[in-house]
Amino acid sequence: MTCAATLAPGAQLSGWVRAKEGGVVCGLWLFAEVFQQLGSNVQVSDVAADGTAVQPGDVVIRMHGDATAMLIGERT
């Protein structure tokens, strides 16, 4: 409901996911799967590979596509 009320139809969005803490990246394939399950055109690009050590603030993944799908899928 919020997306329908606040976003123009067809709106596009770009975003990224950053590590909040140091650790090891795991499960990046889930991002693409979530957006595929939503039937969206969101393009997901891994910046870090699974198994990569990251520090706080490191970009792990980038996304671009349908704004509604990104806002629905990002919490999943």
Characterise this structure.
By secondary structure, the chain is of the alpha+beta class. The chain has helices at 2-6, 29-37, 67-73; strands at 12-18, 23-24, 43-46, 53-54, 59-66. The strands form 2 sheets. The chain has a 3-stranded antiparallel sheet with strand order 1-5-3. Strands 2-4 form a two-stranded antiparallel sheet. It has 3 helices and 5 strands. The two termini are 16 Å apart.
Number of strands: 5
* Measured distance between first and last alpha carbons: 16 Å
> What would the average pLDDT be, to the nearest integer?
90
Q: If you compute it from the alpha carbons, what radius of gyration comes out, rounded to the nearest whole angstrom? A: 13 Å
The share of residues in helices is 25-40%
How would a crystallographer describe the biggest sheet?
Answer: 3 strands, antiparallel
Q: Which sequence of strands runs across the widest sheet?
A: 1-5-3
Structural classification:
alpha+beta
Unreliable runs: none
Number of helices: 3
Strand content: 25-35%
Order of helices and strands: HEEHEEEH
Feature tags:
two-stranded antiparallel ribbon, alpha+beta, 76 residues, three-stranded antiparallel sheet, 5 strands
What's a concise summary of this model?
This protein has helices at 2-6, 29-37, 67-73; strands at residues 12-18, 23-24, 43-46, 53-54, 59-66. The chain is an alpha+beta fold.
Layout of strands and helices, then pairs:
Layout: H1 2-6, E1 12-18, E2 23-24, H2 29-37, E3 43-46, E4 53-54, E5 59-66, H3 67-73
Antiparallel strand pairs: 1-5, 2-4, 3-5
